[in-house]
Design goal:
heterodimer; A: 640 residues; alpha/beta; Rossmann fold; Helix Hairpins; 10 strands; 67% helix; 8% strand; elongated; B: 76 residues; alpha+beta; 2 helices; globular
Chain lengths: 640, 76
């Protein structure tokens, strides 16, 4: 039997899923889409259950891809029963979602989750009455404490077996009449699509883009829909989408008033913590401490693990070279080992602490508070509050920074944030800045690179906003109550995300590493240098630098390590001038992100957009490097 | 007296009278429980023209000033 969990964001759906799920959980994509869902097989009450965790959405309209996919999944009948997870403390709002589920006419159980929070807010719910009104069983749970889960599963199995579907409450008579009229003409279409006629009629009246598009080939039907819509708009004096939505709202409020009693909320520690976290001064002080703490936590843990692992791998390669000589087989093995080392030694040490921290920030609800506090600042560069995290993380490693863009709602924001965040100098690029600029020119020059970097990113942000304007008029974001994280949920989340890296990014890292190793063996570097001559000429750096830029794509610090090799000296300043070192470093900081980051980007945004970001970073890098070159040229008399 | 939500001072309770703006904004607000006729409490203003924090139907929602300016409200 297959059970699908559906519900709004922050309703505790994932916590519930993790509590029920076994260890064999897989993450799957909806066919051909980037929307993901988790699925797990478990044996409970003597029945093998497949539990599907649908993406959390506020409604089941055509607002975004996740909504359409979740809706289609429910309509397809793939699940034998749908469990509607509801945050009991937000019952009045959540009921509108429940009503939309009832319209779909599938076997349904309502799970009133977070009953403890509802009680804290002073909300008493009569779940028997609620069950009678909706016509489906209602089960009370506290998923974070495992309360009521047995009952929920048993009820879901029962409902699945008997196919209990409930009934969607009636709207006002004129609306029902309008629905009936559309139903009469859309019946055949509904049967073709395999959806309930009443559901289709409501969606068409709402002006649902998805269904209107699906039925685009039936002009007479669309015409009838428009006629009924116009009629409703005349009598109600409101746009048609609002009419149905407010009707649902009215029904939901009515049900809420019948089943719930709202008393005095208990003022808890959480409220007081919140006052502090979102305070106009203390909030920022705490925010900065959290960001700095998070960054150093990731950075220091990563560093301490990275160093011994990397040096172990380096001595392994040295040992192999001694045993095997410089044949092709050595280079192949070296490429493979370096690829492995890149994954184990460099990305993992930063990724694991980051993923744990990220899950904590998400699950406690601090992330949305961060967005609230930072919104005004981030708007200046065309982003909003939630984008602050990827930037901070970018100073550690770009891979988690890219993964952190997932918290953003729109594709536009994810794209722009990812583009800007990959240009933040990560730990590897910090090594280059230290190893070249600080070592050969001085600490102030190194610091100026960081400041220059922020300036360029802000500029790039403003420019990008001109090209791809913000679609949303501004922030509309739920601030969920502050919650204690559940350990199992945090660890599961971390594991899922880590597995994605291992499966997707790592193979690419290894493949890239082997290709470069072969290039080194065949002496292809000369050809590469010639190919990159226009670039090196433009930047005014030695031609031999060309290959180091290619190696830098594999791992950013290789740009510097290979520079010593390419120039044939450990003293770069004997071959390159201070200006050349500055220009080279600036370019290295901005241009194409490393292979691991590229893999993460492609996972989040697709290859086409990853290509776009590469192009944009090269342009930005070129602009920034030439700007530095130009500035030095302008002010060079001062240096002489 | 109708005014826009972004001008309401902290601690005041107001009733939503009208929501301007396109389908997307209306839908998004309605998803988070903000409809015409709903009672809203303004809880906080983020500094420097940042968003405001409101309470509606027992949940807290952050609204950017631009969005809030599209919501016409009336004092109770």
């Amino acid at each position: 039997m297959r059970i699908a969990l559906a519900g709004q964001p922050n309703c505790g759906k994932s916590t519930l899923f993790n509590a029920l799920a076994g260890y064999r959980t897989v993450t799957a994509n909806f066919p051909g889409q980037t929307v993901r869902y988790n699925m797990s097989k478990v044996r409970l009450h003597g029945v093998t259950l497949e539990i599907v965790d649908l993406p959390g959405t506020y409604s089941l309209t055509s607002m975004d891809l996740a909504e359409v996919e979740a809706r289609n999944y429910i309509l397809s009948g793939s699940a034998d029963v749908v469990v509607n997870v509801v945050d009991a403390s937000l019952l009045s709002r959540s009921l509108e979602f429940t009503l939309q589920l009832l319209e779909m006419d599938r076997p349904l159980v309502v799970c009133l989750n977070m009953m403890d929070e509802a009680r804290r807010k002073g909300i008493e719910i009569d779940s028997n009455t609620l069950s009678r009104i909706l016509g489906v069983p209602v089960v009370e749970t506290i998923a974070s404490k495992g309360v009521g889960l047995e009952d929920l599963v048993a009820t879901a199995i029962e409902v699945g077996k008997r196919g209990i579907r409930g009934r969607s409450p009636e709207f006002h008579r004129d609306i029902e009449k309008a629905i009936g009229e559309v139903e009469a003409v859309a019946g055949a279409a509904a049967e073709d699509m395999g959806v309930p006629a009443r559901f289709l009629a409501i969606k068409l009246l709402e002006g649902d883009e998805y269904f209107l598009r699906e039925l685009g080939g039936q002009p007479s039907l669309i015409k009838e829909v428009r006629r009924v819509q116009a009629l409703l708009e005349r009598t109600h004096g409101r746009p048609h989408d609002v009419i149905i939505a407010s009707e649902r709202h009215a029904v939901a409020m009515n049900i809420f008033e019948r089943v719930a009693r709202v008393g005095e909320p208990v003022r808890t520690i959480q409220d007081r913590v919140d006052d502090f976290l979102m305070h106009r001064y203390w909030g920022y002080i705490f925010l900065i401490s959290i960001l700095v703490g998070f960054f150093y936590g990731v950075f220091i843990t990563g560093r301490n693990i990275e160093d011994p692992i990397v040096s172990a791998f380096e001595s392994l390669i040295g040992w192999m070279e001694g045993r095997m000589g410089e044949g092709l087989s050595f280079y192949l093995l070296k490429g493979l080992t370096e690829g492995l080392a890149g994954g184990i030694g460099i990305v993992m040490p930063y990724l694991i602490p980051f993923l744990v921290g990220m899950a904590l920030l998400e699950d406690t609800g601090y992330l949305s508070r961060m967005a609230f506090l930072m919104d005004a600042f981030m708007h200046r560069i065309g982003l909003h509050g939630k984008s602050v995290l990827p930037f901070v993380l970018g100073y550690g490693c770009s891979v988690p920074a890219v993964m952190a863009t997932r918290v953003l709602e729109t594709e536009r924001d994810r794209l722009v944030t990812a583009f800007l965040a990959v240009m933040v100098p990560c730990a590897a690029r910090t090594t280059v800045i230290y190893g070249l600029v600080a070592a050969y020119i001085g600490p102030i020059a190194a610091l100026s690179i960081y400041l220059f970097n922020i300036l360029i990113i802000a500029l790039a942000g403003r420019l990008t906003t001109h090209i791809i304007p913000e679609v949303t008029p501004g922030l509309i974001l739920e601030i969920p109550p502050f919650r204690l994280p559940v350990l199992k949920a945090v660890l599961t989340k971390t594991w899922f995300r880590l597995r994605e890296f291992v499966l997707v990014a790592w193979p690419i890292l290894i493949a890239g590493s082997i290709v470069l190793s072969i290039l080194e063996y065949t002496g292809g570097d000369v050809a590469v240098n010639r190919l990159l001559q226009p670039l090196t000429f433009l930047l005014g750096v030695p031609q031999a630098v060309g290959t180091t830029l290619i190696f830098g794509i594999l791992r950013k610090e290789l740009s510097m390590i290979m520079l010593f090799q390419a120039l044939g000296t450990m003293d770069v300043s004997s071959v390159m001038s201070a200006v050349q070192i500055m220009v080279f470093t600036v370019f290295v900081v901005f241009y194409i992100p490393c292979v691991a980051t590229l893999a993460a980007l492609s996972r989040e945004l697709g290859w086409r957009r990853t290509g776009l970001i590469c192009l944009a970073t090269v342009m930005t890098g070129l602009f920034a490097a030439l700007l530095v070159r130009g500035l030095f040229w302008l002010f060079s008399p001062l240096y002489r | 007296m109708a005014e826009t939500l972004d001008r309401v001072s902290v601690g005041k309770r107001v009733v939503v009278k009208e929501i301007e703006g396109g389908f997307g904004v209306r839908q998004h607000l309605s998803n988070l429980g903000i409809h015409i006729g709903d009672r809203v409490l303004v809880k906080k203003h983020a500094p420097l023209g940042g968003p405001l924090l409101i309470e509606v139907h027992g949940s807290e929602v952050a609204l950017g000033r631009g969005v809030a300016a599209r919501v016409r409200v009336e004092e109770e």
